[in-house]
Design a protein that fits this description.
heterodimer, A: alpha/beta, Rossmann fold, Alpha-Beta Plaits, six-stranded mixed beta sheet, four-stranded antiparallel beta sheet, B: mainly alpha, 12 helices, 0% strand, globular
Chain lengths: 315, 270
C-alpha cells in the first residue's frame, strides 16, 4: 500500500474555554500526508497538538476548519474506523472487565463476533504475552500490562491503520523492545502505524518518517535520515598529522577542526565548495581515508528545532 | 442495532460488576421479608385490610396490594435512580470515551446503548422485587392478581423518563451527582408539587399568569406522581386507564430529552 492513508488539509483546531473568552489554537492549518505501509512518528513537546491531531482524525474531537481523510474516507464517516486501531494515552478500561472481556468488547464494537473473535483474542493475548492473564480483572494489571493490553486492543480488528499515543509509556526496557518488535512486524505486514512519542531514541529506531509539531504547527517532516543530517558538515579521516601543510585561510574558511585522532570536521556551503575543498586537501598532499556526512541525533535536531521556533516566536 | 445491543449487554455487565444487582437484591430481599413477616403475623386478611376502609375496593387482597403499591414503587424508583446514575458519566470519562469513539460506532448508538442498558438493569431488579412481594401476597391469600405485576412496567417506564433526564445532565456535566439530584428533585418535589397545584389548587388560583405558569411546567415536567399514582393504581386494580395524558406527555419528554442529549453529544469534543 503506497497511497496516502492519512491526508489533512488546512486542519485547524481551536479550543474555546467556557463562554469562549479564552481560545487555544491546538492545531494550525496542518497539511500532512502519510503513506501506507510505514511507521510515522509525530514528535513534539507537551501541548504541541499531537494528541489533538489523532483525536481529530478519529472523530473524537471536531475540527474548527479544514478537512482530513483516513484510509481515503472523510473523517466524519465513522464506518472508516472498522479498519483503524487506537491506543490512547492514559487509556482507561472498565476495571470490572478482564483482559479477555476488554478485547471482546472492543472486538465486538469493531464488528467481529463468534469464533473468529475468540481466536483473535487468544492470538492477540499471546502476542502481547498476556495469555495467562486473560481472565484476570484489568484493575489488577500493572501499568506495563495495561499498555500491552492496549496494544492488543488496538490490533484486535486487524486494522490497516493504527494510532499509538505513547505506547511504551510505563513499560520497562524489555517490554519496550517487545513493543518495538511488534510494530516492526506490523509494518512488515503492510500496516501503517502513526506513533506519538516523547521517546525520541525509540522513534529514531523504528520510524520511516517523522513530523515535528510545535504549538500546533508542523515545523518539519521527512525521513529520520533527512532530518538528522547536518547540512554540508563532513567528517574526514586523514593519514598522518599533515594538516599543518594547509593554508591558514583555507583552514579558517572551511572551519577545519580536529575531532579525535585522525578525524577532522569541516563545513562548506554547497556541493561545489565541497569538491573545491577536497581538491585543496588533495593538492596539499592530504590523504583522505574516509569521509562521511555529519549527523545529529534525532534528539539534538528536535531540541535545536524547537529552540529555533521558540526564538522566532519571541521575535 | 447490533452495536446498541452490545453496549446494552456491557452496561448490564457493568451493573453486575458494580454490585448494583447485589445491592438491589439485598434491599429487595429485606422488603420482601418485611412484607412476608407482616402477613405472617396477621392471620386474618380482614384485619390487615380493615385499616384501609376508605379505599374503593371490595376485594381485601386488592386493598392490601394498593397499600403496598406506593411505598414499593417509590422504593424501586429511588433505588433505580441511584443504581443507574453513573452509567453515562463513567462512559464519558477521559480514556474511556476515546476508546469507544475510536471504534466504528456512532455517537447515537453509544447513548442509546447506555439508555437501554440502564433500563434493562432496572427492569430486572424491579421485576425481582415486585415478583417477590407479589408471590408472598398471592401465596398467603391464595389470590393471584396478575395485574399487580404491571407495577414492573409502570415503574420501569417512569424510570426511563427520569433516566433520559439523567443522561442529559450526564452529557452536559459528566457528573453522576448532578443527574441524580435532578431526577430526585423531579420525582420527590417538582412532580408532586405540580400535580397538587394542577389537581387541588388550580381552581383556587385567580391569577391567569400563575395558572399559565403552572400549566406550562405541568405539561413539560414528567408526571412521575401520576405515573406511579393514579395510573399504576388503575392498572393494578384491573381498571382501564382514565387519562393517558400523563403517559403521553411524559413519553414526549423522554423523546425530547434524548433528542437534546444526542444532539449535544454529537457535537461534543472529548
Amino acid at each position: 500500500m503506497s497511497l496516502n492513508v492519512i491526508e489533512t488539509s488546512d486542519l485547524t483546531k481551536i479550543y474555546s474555554s467556557s463562554f469562549g473568552k479564552r481560545k487555544v489554537e491546538a492545531l494550525t492549518n496542518l497539511d500532512l500526508n502519510v503513506s501506507g505501509g510505514m511507521i510515522f512518528g509525530l514528535l513534539g513537546p507537551n501541548g504541541a497538538g499531537k494528541t489533538t491531531l489523532i483525536k481529530l482524525l478519529l472523530g473524537i474531537t471536531f475540527p474548527t476548519s479544514g478537512s482530513a481523510k483516513i484510509l481515503n474516507k472523510n473523517i466524519g464517516n465513522y464506518n472508516v474506523k472498522d479498519k483503524v486501531g487506537y491506543l490512547p494515552e492514559n487509556h482507561k478500561y472498565p476495571p470490572y472487565l478482564s483482559g479477555g472481556d476488554v478485547l471482546q468488547l472492543f472486538g465486538k464494537l469493531s464488528g467481529m463476533d463468534g469464533t473468529e473473535l475468540e481466536k483473535k483474542i487468544d492470538e492477540m493475548l499471546q502476542l502481547v504475552q498476556l495469555s495467562k492473564w486473560k481472565k484476570t480483572k484489568v484493575k489488577n494489571y500493572s501499568k506495563g500490562m495495561m499498555q500491552r493490553l492496549g496494544l492488543a486492543q488496538a490490533m484486535i480488528n486487524d486494522p490497516d491503520l493504527i494510532f499509538l499515543d505513547e505506547p511504551t509509556d510505563g513499560v520497562d526496557p524489555i517490554g519496550r523492545k517487545e513493543i518495538r518488535d511488534i510494530l516492526i512486524e506490523l509494518k512488515n505486514k503492510g500496516k501503517t502505524i502513526f506513533l506519538n512519542s516523547h521517546l525520541l531514541s525509540e522513534v529514531e529506531m523504528i520510524t520511516d518518517r517523522v513530523g515535528i509539531l510545535n504549538k500546533g504547527k508542523l515545523l518539519r517532516e521527512g525521513t529520520v535520515k533527512e532530518l538528522t543530517e547536518k547540512k554540508e558538515e563532513y567528517k574526514i579521516a586523514i593519514e598522518g598529522d599533515t594538516v599543518y601543510t594547509l593554508p591558514a585561510d583555507f583552514v579558517l574558511k572551511i572551519n577545519l577542526k580536529k575531532m579525535d585522532k585522525d578525524y577532522y570536521s569541516f563545513k562548506v556551503d554547497n556541493t561545489l565548495e565541497l569538491n573545491n575543498a577536497l581538491d585543496v586537501l588533495r593538492n596539499n598532499g592530504i590523504i583522505i581515508k574516509e569521509m562521511t556526512q555529519q549527523k545529529n541525533t534525532l534528539e539534538e535536531m528536535f531540541i535545536s528545532l524547537i529552540k529555533e521556533a521558540e526564538k522566532e516566536n519571541v521575535q | 442495532m447490533k452495536n446498541i445491543w452490545i453496549l446494552t449487554w456491557f452496561t448490564l455487565k457493568e451493573a453486575m460488576a458494580r454490585k448494583v444487582f447485589i445491592f438491589f437484591f439485598i434491599i429487595s430481599l429485606l422488603a420482601i421479608l418485611i412484607t412476608g413477616l407482616v402477613f405472617a403475623l396477621s392471620s386474618n386478611i380482614n384485619v390487615i385490610a380493615g385499616g384501609f376502609k376508605n379505599m374503593p375496593f371490595n376485594n381485601p387482597v386488592t386493598m392490601i396490594e394498593m397499600m403496598i403499591v406506593s411505598p414499593l414503587s417509590s422504593l424501586c424508583l429511588l433505588l433505580a435512580i441511584f443504581a443507574s446514575a453513573s452509567f453515562v458519566p463513567v462512559m464519558l470519562e477521559k480514556g474511556n470515551i476515546d476508546l469507544l469513539l475510536s471504534k466504528p460506532v456512532s455517537r447515537d448508538q453509544l447513548l442509546w446503548g447506555k439508555f437501554f442498558g440502564g433500563i434493562l438493569v432496572v427492569l430486572l431488579n424491579i421485576a425481582f422485587l415486585v415478583l417477590g412481594v407479589w408471590l408472598i401476597i398471592s401465596i398467603k391469600f391464595s389470590n393471584w392478581n396478575f395485574s399487580f405485576l404491571n407495577i414492573i412496567l409502570s415503574v420501569t417506564f417512569t424510570f426511563a423518563v427520569l433516566y433520559s433526564l439523567m443522561i442529559l445532565f450526564g452529557v452536559l456535566t459528566k457528573s453522576s451527582t448532578a443527574g441524580m439530584m435532578v431526577a430526585y428533585f423531579v420525582f420527590i418535589i417538582l412532580s408532586p408539587l405540580l400535580f397538587a397545584a394542577k389537581d387541588k389548587f388550580y381552581g383556587m388560583i385567580e391569577s391567569g399568569f400563575v395558572k399559565a405558569l403552572i400549566d406550562i411546567f405541568y405539561y413539560i415536567i414528567p408526571k412521575t406522581s401520576e405515573l406511579l399514582g393514579n395510573i399504576t393504581t388503575d392498572i393494578i386494580s384491573g381498571k382501564s386507564i382514565e387519562n393517558y395524558q400523563p403517559i403521553l406527555t411524559s413519553f414526549a419528554f423522554l423523546l425530547l430529552t434524548m433528542g437534546i442529549s444526542i444532539s449535544i453529544f454529537r457535537k461534543k469534543d472529548f
